[in-house]
Specification:
The protein is an alpha/beta fold. The chain is about 45% helix and about 15% strand.
Length: about 250
């Protein structure tokens, strides 16, 4: 029986590659994005592209009404935020949490009843390697991801009783994604002059990373998490994330 995976944030990057990865392996894929564009994918009857805003309760409810039974939920949608914490407006910080944290929790809450009743299913929450170390200029963003790390570890315990798995996939730095371009406020606007000397070497290191993460690394990690039989919670994705996980 063909299984169904629902993936958030599939217009580009990790989400799009993961959708293609599972389609290539015979799965049914529900690819969600704020502005649905089926032309982003090769045509197949195993793919449905659906609208979703993870910060909107009505949007989430409409999605699950249209989606039907889901075997795997991948919470991948998120927004970036890099800069000096001092300069970040609280309104922006709230936006980060609404999408990266509350949005993930809302999606989990929406899918849990059907998985609990079936006593099967997998929830995969995509966080970041910022949860594996200390990264300057990422305080608020790291907080949104660390929150999901703790949330998922606890949720895995309570849903495990019902045969439902919860996994974490932790990607490293992927310069080929639109992480920087999708930031609501450019980093240049979040670096007051007093931070210039501190930020310069940090940003230079980002521009010349020794190890990085590819989109396919994340798709592979999600595939491994879905098929895990050893009760593993965390799956670092990408050479840099794997290296950080080893010394954590």
């Amino acid at each position: 029986m063909t299984k169904t995976i629902l993936i958030t944030g599939t217009s580009s990057g990790y989400g799009k590659t993961t959708a293609e990865h599972f389609l290539a392996r015979g799965w049914k894929v529900l690819a969600t994005m704020r502005h649905p564009d089926p032309s982003l994918f090769a045509e197949t009857d195993r793919l449905r592209v659906l609208p979703l805003d993870v910060t909107n309760a009505d949007s989430i409810a409409s999605l699950f009404e249209a989606a039907g039974p889901v075997d795997v939920l991948v919470n991948n949608a998120g927004i970036g935020g890099i800069g000096a914490f001092e300069a970040m407006p609280l309104s922006f910080i709230r936006q980060l949490f609404e999408t990266n944290t509350i949005g993930v929790m809302a999606m989990c809450q929406a899918v849990i009843p059907q998985m609990r009743e079936r006593r099967s299913g997998t929830i995969i929450n995509v966080t970041s390697s910022v949860a594996l170390g200390e990264f300057p200029l990422a305080a608020a963003y790291a907080a949104t991801k660390q929150a999901i790390e703790g949330f998922s570890a606890s949720l895995a315990q309570e849903l495990g009783y019902f045969g439902v798995d919860v996994k974490l996939v932790e990607p490293g730095y992927a310069p080929t994604t639109k992480f920087g371009a999708n930031a609501i406020i450019p980093v240049s606007e979040l670096l007051p002059g007093a931070y210039a000397d501190f930020a310069r070497p940090v940003l230079e290191a980002f521009s010349k990373p020794t190890m990085t993460t590819r989109e396919i690394d994340v798709a592979d990690a999600i595939w491994q998490a879905v098929h895990d039989t050893e009760n593993q919670l965390r799956f670092p994705a990408g050479a840099d994330a794997v290296a950080l996980a080893k010394i954590r």
